[in-house]
Amino acid sequence: MIKRLDVTDEAKKLIQELVEKHGELMFYQAGGCCEGTQPQCFEKGGFYPRMNDAMIGLAEGFEFWIDRDLFEYWKYAHFTLDVLDGFGPGGFSLETPLGKTFKVHYRLFTEEELNDLAPIVRSE
What we know:
This protein is an alpha/beta fold. 20% of the residues lie in helices and 35% in strands. The chain has 3 helices and 8 strands; from the N terminus they run E-H-E-E-E-E-H-E-E-H-E. The chain has a 5-stranded mixed sheet with strand order 3-2-5-4-8. A 3-stranded mixed sheet has the order 1-6-7. Strand 4 and strand 5 (62-66) form a beta hairpin. Pfam families: DUF779 (PF05610). This is DUF779 domain-containing protein.
């Protein structure tokens, strides 16, 4: 199966740092408003996905959810979670006080990859 989500080494390091400070995590990528489409990192249970949002994979063992409408737009794309120095647009994410922001890089799946994609989970 082809994964829909990968994590860069820099993002893995930051996730580990956040786990040490906050415990279990979760990620949510909204479709607009305050956060734009920046992925947000919360303590597990600190944000509740809406009905029919999509969980596309795990970032270092933690659920990565996508807004249902945003997923429909990006369902043919692979996500790579990365981290940059600076502040994201929302400021609600756990990495913000560290002067970091999570970022997603996208690429379209190849036709071969589309035939073997890992399934998603939908919230109820």
